[in-house]
Amino acid sequence: MSMTDPKEYYYLNRRKTNAVEVSWNDNNVTIGGGYPIVIQSMTNTGTTNYIDTSLQIKELFLSGAELVRITVNSSEAARSVIDIRNQLDKNGIYVPLVGDFHYNGHKLLSDFPDCAQALSKYRINPGNVGSGHYKDNNFNNIIEIACRYDKPVRIGVNWGSIDKDLLSLKLNENNHLKENQLDYKSVMLDTLIESALNSASHAEELGLGSNKIVISCKVSQVRELIYVYNALSDACNYPLHLGLTEAGLGDKGIVSSTSALSILLNQGIGDTIRVSITPEGNNSRSREVLIAKEILQSLGIRFYSPSVISCPGCGRTNSDFFQKLASDIDIFIKDNMLIWKDLYPGVEKMNVAVMGCVVNGPGESKNADIGISLPGNGELPIAPVFVDGERVTTLKGDSILSEFKTIISNYVAARYGRFSL
């Protein structure tokens, strides 16, 4: 098997799962079944503020989120779901909405049938649907409503809200072992897996089809997440939702999410993903969507926009000309993708190299679809340009940026235009 096509490598090694369809108004999103990895996000606005929530959903959708989850935690929030759905539909934003239920989902879905119908998918956590005999009754009610309205369900287990009764049982069993006792964390992780699988099996017994169930088992540590999802992938054919439950702030959150998701996805595990990072300052919620897209594109699984390859700079590149050029070209490509994505199918796979010195610059530029190599060290900019591995021209002086943009535009039209309808 060749590694020259990362996407082919991924899909040949991808775990086989059921296909779960989530839809609204003919916008069908399929999780699993060999379909492309689905990117999800979740609003952090108060659901009762249906205007702000609708605007954030629109922003997430336009950034690339294919499913958006909203909190439904009160009667007021349940009523607002209808307003949110109507507001989105009026603006042609037909992204499927997922209702996130904890503690009282059975009651809200029963009391507000319009909400149950307007949502495209439900997310429930077996660890907090109730306790004692109420737990089974509440879980059963939610599943029966999902069956009634033909809605898929994500059974999302979380180590921060694990089923305490099941955990106590498993700890007690472990304590009575005469040998090979497990530590607390190992018991807890195995309990997460068992809780998810038992709940999914019970949902099927209640009539929910296996093609209506997605599973997640979220923790906040990378190694534990990898352990849990490898075990799940061996134990079932349900599509799996990947993500750290609390990845953290800034660089830490990005690195943790990228590490965990990349390892699992490269193993062929995972059908839908969410990057959960704590917002900083005025950063847009859509940042987590953009990070998810970068993860998938960096692995060669899905492509969204041409990649700009640029070197980090070193003592040979004490001029910042190439850095400004790389930034300008990246912005130019992103701005033009609004037009290119419809006119030129396949352009999202294009690679553009903007290199800063003569050591690796020419080689990287030749390996890209289009590349430019600057001399570095503060000399006057004299930059050879390579197209499909061949040197085609040398740009000089103050017009390098504008001329290179023209070369890129002409290349896009010539290479990808022949595929346009």
Q: Mind explaining what this structure looks like?
A:
- The mean pLDDT is 92.
- An eight-stranded parallel β-sheet has the order 8-7-6-5-4-3-10-9.
- The protein contains 14 helices and 15 strands.
- Helix 2 (50-63) packs across helix 3 (75-90).
- The chain has helices at 6-12, 50-63, 75-90, 105-111, 113-118, 133-149, 164-175, 184-205, 222-235, 250-266, 287-298, 321-343, 361-367, 400-416; strands at 19-24, 27-32, 38-42, 67-71, 97-100, 121-124, 153-158, 213-218, 241-242, 272-273, 307-310, 351-355, 370-373, 382-387, 390-396.
- It is elongated and about 80 Å long.
- The protein has 421 residues and is α/β, with parallel strands linked by helices.
- The chain folds into two domains: 8-299, Dihydropteroate synthase-like (TIM Barrel); 307-417, 2-Layer Sandwich (Sulfite Reductase Hemoprotein, domain 1), CATH 3.30.413.10.
- It comes from Candidatus Kinetoplastidibacterium blastocrithidiae TCC012E.
- Its cofactor is [4Fe-4S] cluster.
- One of its GO terms (biological process) is isopentenyl diphosphate biosynthetic process, methylerythritol 4-phosphate pathway.
- It catalyses: (2E)-4-hydroxy-3-methylbut-2-enyl diphosphate + oxidized [flavodoxin] + H2O + 2 H(+) = 2-C-methyl-D-erythritol 2,4-cyclic diphosphate + reduced [flavodoxin].
- It is an enzyme of class 1 (oxidoreductase).
